[in-house]
Amino acid sequence: MKLSIFVVVLYGCISLISPVVAAVAENIIDPNAEKLAINSSIGYLDNYHPRLEDEINATAFSFGLAGELLSMHESAWLQATYSAAHTQFKPDEIEMDLEDQFNQYNIQLLSRFFVSNKWYLDLQGSHLKEDYLLGSGIAKFRPATTIGDSVTRNELAAAVVYGGSNNNLDSRATRRFLKFAISHLDQDYEDNNPYSNLFDLTRDTAELGLNFKLSDITQFETSFQFEKVDFVDDSQLDSDVYRLLLGFQWQGTGQTHLKLLVGGYKRVYQSMSDRQGFLAELDAEYAPLDYLTLSLNGSQTTATGDIEGSLDTVTKGVKLAINYHYRDHIKFTVNGHVNHTKFEQIAEQRTSDDSAVGIVGELSLNDHSSISLGLAKESLEYDLLDLDYVQNKVELSCRYAF
Predict the structure, then answer these.
(1) In the chain, fewer beta carbons within 10 Å around the N or the C end?
(2) Residues 12, 151: contact at Cβ < 8 Å?
């Protein structure tokens, strides 16, 4: 719950409609999570609407809160997670009337029932309402609009896990477990722009995963997932997707962690030829010193994409993070990512390249409050329209947790 609004702004503009599907993992419940954390910030960016030819500078004011409530009993755990944020932009004097207020809120309820010492059942529901910034989300590859897109996502999920226990709070612990999960998602865009409702859909998934402990530091992991994507608009292409991932997780000394999964997918259409390809997921972390941690993440994924008529959207991405603790109350974090995305359409293929780099310095005033200063730079290149842009940001944030 310690992610600041700065991080949300930095990465919010690069999210795809279809989430990255990783191998089966358990829902981690942290009994020490903060019940309430309040964030407020002021920032400045030099390209408020990246789809306009003339750059518009803007000042941003943000306020947000997030937290987790947990009730733990012998046979059941109940968790409620929530977040909400409001961002107000003040652009420089312009002739156009651009939207300048954006909101987001999310609530998630999770009930975990311990059937026996080895079996438990998770029942989960979530509701999300989000306003996308101008030129982001499904508007990322489109000419300029004056109104951002707004989406509502409602999801129900259930999972049965064998091998769980009341001590499964560490997602990296090497142990064997078997999980079967199903979910249903409804995605509904408000009719803000002519294209918005093209991306209304339902998504149903079923997933089976197995983690098998090979030793105290190594475990084998495999997952198989079926996904059914059904668009409301008949002009969009529905599909069924099958994914298979195999690999291992290695927890060496306390300094090193490595997870590698490889596999493939097959996307099946009713009226088009099938698509298939390679999938991969890499998660590596190295802590050579007590105050220094290096993290590397890489992946190749398939998604429904954020361009209508795209048969398949394949993204190759790499993320790097460096965390440096200077003394007890000062921390520096450097984040960067590079993505290459290929959009396969009926008559042609299109590609995009986006990247971002940012640095955040955080000063902890005490156990409950902190101040941070962040700098970030984003860029996008797209080979179809003249939509390339560079955006620079600076933000000062303060945070208080209860």
Answers:
(1) C
(2) no
Lowest mean pLDDT among 52-61, 72-81, 183-192: 52-61
Average pLDDT rounded to a whole number, residues 7-13: 36
Q: Round the average pLDDT of the chain to a whole number and report it.
A: 87
Half-sphere exposure of 246 (CA within 13 A, CB side): 2
How far apart CA 359 and CA 369 sit, in angstroms, is 20
Distance (Å, whole) CA 164 – CA 178: 9
Could you tell me the pLDDT band of residue 167, with boundaries at 50, 70 and 90?
very low
Please answer whether residues 399 and 372 qualify as being in contact, where contact means their C-beta atoms are separated by less than 8 angstroms: yes
- Asked whether 29 and 110 are in contact (CB, 8 A), the reply is yes
Triad 233, 239, 245: Cα angle to 5°: 140
Dump strand ranges (E) for 115-255: 119-131, 150-162, 177-189, 201-213, 218-231, 239-251
CATH of the domain at 21: 2.40.160
Tell me how far apart the alpha carbons of residues 262 and 283 are, in angstroms, rounded to a whole number.
12
Core vs surface per residue 162-178: b (16+ CB within 10 A) or e: ebbeeebeeeebbeebb
The tally of domains found in the chain comes to: 1
* Residue 25 pLDDT greater than 80, yes or no: no
Q: What angle do CA 232, 234, 238 make, to 5 degrees?
A: 75
Full residue range of the structural domain in which residue 75 is found: 5-401
